Each structure stands twice: as C-alpha cells, then as structure tokens.
C-alpha cells in the first residue's frame, strides 16, 4: 500500500508580489497566481487525487488554490497549519518597517522567542505547526487503517503555506538543507511525504 501526504503551497498573492510580511491576513490569489496554477495543472505536476482526503487552512488563498488544482472537493480545515502571524507587521514591507524599533528588535532576535507586536514568535509558530501536523498525521493514520485490507492507497492532500511547509520539512529532515528558507517551495509547488504508520520516511518534490 502506498501512503503519502502531499503538501502544496498556495498560489501567488499580492503579498508575494509586493514582498510583504503576511500570514494571518486573509488575502486572495492574485491574477498571476490564478494563471500560474492553471499552467501548472496543464503541465500535470500535481499528485494524483483519486481517493485522497483534502485539507486547507481555511484562508481564501488556500481555498482558491485547492479549487483551481483539483476542482470543488469536499475538504476539512486545519487552522493550526496556517502561516505565521506577523501581528502589527502584517501587510507591510521591509521598507515600511526597517526603522520601526519593534521591528528592529524582532528582526534581530536570534533565539526565536521574540514575538512581533500582537503576533507570534518563531518558537510559538513552530510549536503550532507541530501540533497541526500531529492532527493531520492522526487523520492520515486513520486513512491508512481504513484502506489497509482493501488494496487501496492512502493519500492526504494539504494546501497550506510556505512557512508551514518549511517548518514541517525542517522538523522531519534536519540538516538536509542549510537553512529554513531553503525548504520553502515556490508558489503552487510542494513536497510529497512517504509515510508509514505515523512515521515520515522520505520525500519528493513537485
């Protein structure tokens, strides 16, 4: 039996185009994001969806991405897998923030424990993602058990965020890449995790 979890980053948004800090902001895909996803679908880069359980984080950009890739699919929401909340820095650029004392202090933090005003710290973010992935893995494990004797495969497909995916990948494959940011896939791309009985074994990219 094949057992896989597909992690897909949502398509391009205004936040990506303008290089803004955003995670909690519920913004839609940009027109470019919609166009690019349609092109990627035409290139057949996405994992098979037959029999998959589908998930989003409930934010509009993940909902739109799921629909553009796989059509209208019944799915569940795991809010714990949302992108980092940047608090008062949301929807602002480096140029807008570079002289703000709170931003300077936050950006210079090497411990990961300093939260942006009204936002969350890196440590808090990673713990939330760990909890969210535990929820997902628990549901996927039930999927594995439900198809174990049927000869079918177990697939779970999650449309989420770049920071979310990087956090998951760095947790399971420490030292494989030199920096957290090297794990962030391009918009519309992601990773397939091969799993067995709740363990992540290896990965592939798409």
From TrEMBL:
This protein's species is: Zhenpiania hominis
Pfam families to which the protein is assigned, alphabetical? His_Phos_1
Q: Which domain of life is it from?
A: Bacteria
**GO MF annotations, alphabetized:** fructose-2,6-bisphosphate 2-phosphatase activity
**Which InterPro entries would you find in this protein's record?**
His_Pase_superF_clade-1, His_PPase_superfam, Phosphoglycerate_Mutase
Could you tell me what this protein is called? Histidine phosphatase family protein
Q: Which residues form a coiled coil?
A: none
- Gene3D superfamilies, per this entry? Phosphoglycerate mutase-like
Q: Name one GO cellular component term.
A: cytosol
